[in-house]
Amino acid sequence: MTQPENKIVVGRLGAVYGVKGWLKVSSFTEDPENIFSYNPWTIGRGKLWQEAKIVEWRRHNKGLIVKLDNVDVREKAQLLTGMDIIVDSEQLPDLSQDEFYWRDLVGLNVVNVDGYDMGVVKSLMETGSNDVLVVKANARDAFGISERLIPLIDNQVIESIDLDKKLITVHWDADF
Question: Which of 71, 98, 117, 118 is most buried (CB neighbours < 10 A)?
């Protein structure tokens, strides 16, 4: 089965832990333990996806480990390493009006307060101090820029985000 529509990657299965089928988990949720509130998971990569039920999970050192149903030996667990963990986007918690999921911002047009078309949000990245919009510039950008990195800092750099208009307005120089 191909990756189902309306699914969001919330984590990834890591290395095998022990000999009884436990796996390390990399969680992409704000609070790492929240990944376990989604059960069952859909796990996989490429065109191969399957449902996986969580039997048990726990903290281990600074990380997380999980025991999945029908994965009782190390060899079975090894087949799952590196697989993405996805959930239905409708399972995600509702956000307040001034909050957005990254997926909501990808594909939005970006213009600066002077009306210059900066391009389209290609992706976002986390830098530690703040998130950053990765904006693919227009093919005929007047400044010859192919990509812009614009800090996602509300009220300083980000003037407004309008999901209905698919538009982000920024305080950012067009030649930067």
Answer: 118
